[in-house]
Design brief:
The protein is of the alpha/beta class and 315 residues long. 39% of the residues lie in helices and 15% in strands. It is built from ten helices and eleven strands. The strands form two sheets. A nine-stranded parallel β-sheet has the order 10-9-8-7-6-5-4-3-11. The protein has a two-stranded antiparallel sheet with strand order 1-2. The radius of gyration is 18 Å and the shape is globular.
C-alpha cells in the first residue's frame, strides 16, 4: 500500500502514473494567506485540470510539492476526491531553506519528515508517500546537505522512496548519491529527477548503474528540445534501462498570476503557456513519438505503470 492524500492506495490500483507533477507551486502558507495571487476560482481550476487529465488516461500522479513550495495537503485532498486522480504527496525539502531554520540538525529534520509519513501533515491525517530532497546549479550547499541527510535518515526509518531534484548539467547527482551511500540509503529506492535536462547518456548511465531510477520529468522543458528528450529516453530504453525510467512533465496547475503592465490580469499563469497540453503532453506527443521510434506497447506500459508501481512499492 502507498500513502495517497485520500488514504492507503493499493499499488495495483495506481494505473497510468506520472511521477513528478504539481497541483500548486507557491510559497509556504501562500494558498491560505494570499490566495488571490493564485488567480480566481483556484480550487475549481485545479479540479478541472485534473479532470481533463483523468479523462485523458491519467490515473495517479505524484505531487512533488514540499512545505517550502507551498504544499497544502487539504487542497490536494479536495482536488483528488473531485477529479478522481490519485495524488501521492511528498515530505522533505526543496531549495528554499529560510534563515530561521539554518543550523538545525539532520536528525531534527528527519524526525519531522518521519511524522509527516507516519502521523500525517500537521493538523491532518494525510500522510506523505515519498521523501524529497534537492540541489541545483550551486551543488549540495551546507543547508541542502542537512536536508539530504535528513531525508536519508527518514528513508532508513520509514522505508519510503526518495525523489531527488537535481541538476544534470553540473553532474550534481554524483554529490547527492555520495551522501546517500554515506547514510546507508538503498539506492534502488532513489529517483534522480529532471534527468532529461541533459542528453549526456554517459552520465545518466552512471546514475542508473548505481541502482537508481531516473525521472525524465521535464516536458516540454527548456534548453533541451522535447524531441531530443524523447530520443534520449529511447536510447536509454535500447541500452536496457527501460525498467527504471519514469517520464513526467513537472507541470503546475496553480501558480502566481503576474499583473500585466496595463494593470490587467491574465487568465492563466505564465508557466502554463509553455505547455497548453498540461498533464496530457505525454499522451499527445511523447508516446506517439516513442511508438514511431519503435518502442513497444509493453515498454511504454513499463514507463508509466510498472516502473512507478515498482519504485513506490519497493519491488
Amino acid at each position: 500500500m502507498v500513502n495517497s492524500v485520500l488514504g492507503p492506495l493499493d499499488e495495483s490500483d495506481m494505473g497510468f502514473t506520472l511521477m513528478h507533477e504539481h497541483v500548486m507551486v507557491s510559497a509556504s502558507g501562500m494558498f491560505k494567506s494570499y490566495p488571490d495571487l493564485l488567480g480566481e476560482n483556484r480550487e475549481q481550476r485545479a479540479i478541472d485540470c485534473l479532470k481533463r487529465a483523468k479523462a485523458g488516461g491519467i490515473d495517479t500522479m505524484v505531487d512533488a510539492t514540499t512545505f517550502d513550495l507551498g504544499r497544502d495537503p487539504e487542497l490536494l485532498q479536495l482536488v483528488s476526491r473531485e477529479s478522481g486522480v490519485n495524488i501521492i504527496n511528498v515530505t522533505g525539502w526543496w531549495l528554499d531553506v529560510p534563515r530561521f531554520i539554518r543550523g538545525v540538525s539532520p536528525n531534527q529534520m528527519a524526525r519531522e519528515f518521519v511524522k509527516d509519513a507516519t502521523e500525517g501533515f500537521r493538523g491532518t491525517d494525510i500522510k506523505a508517500g515519498l521523501l524529497k530532497c534537492a540541489a541545483d546549479f550551486e551543488g549540495v550547499t551546507p543547508e541542502l546537505e542537512i536536508m539530504c541527510r535528513a531525508v536519508s535518515r527518514a528513508h532508513n526509518e520509514t522505508g519510503l522512496p526518495i525523489m531527488v531534484h537535481s541538476f544534470p548539467t553540473g553532474h550534481v547527482a554524483r554529490q547527492q548519491i555520495k551522501i546517500f551511500k554515506e547514510e546507508g540509503v538503498d539506492l534502488t529506492r532513489v529517483k534522480i529527477d529532471h534527468s532529461n535536462d541533459t542528453t549526456d547518456t554517459e552520465y545518466l548511465k552512471w546514475i542508473l548503474d548505481q541502482g537508481c531510477y531516473l525521472g525524465l520529468d521535464r516536458y516540454p522543458g527548456r534548453f533541451v528540445s522535447p524531441e531530443m528528450r524523447t530520443q534520449t529516453m529511447k536510447q536509454l530504453i535500447d541500452m536496457g534501462y527501460g525498467d527504471r525510467l519514469c517520464p513526467a512533465h513537472d507541470c503546475i496547475c496553480l501558480h502566481i498570476h503576474n499583473e500585466r503592465p496595463d494593470g490587467s490580469m491574465p487568465d492563466e499563469h505564465a508557466l502554463a503557456l509553455g505547455n497548453p497540453d498540461q498533464f496530457l503532453y505525454m499522451h499527445r506527443h511523447v508516446i506517439p513519438d516513442l511508438k514511431e521510434m519503435g518502442t513497444t506497447d509493453e515498454q511504454i506500459d513499463a514507463l508509466f505503470i510498472d516502473n512507478p508501481r515498482n519504485f513506490l512499492s519497493g519491488h
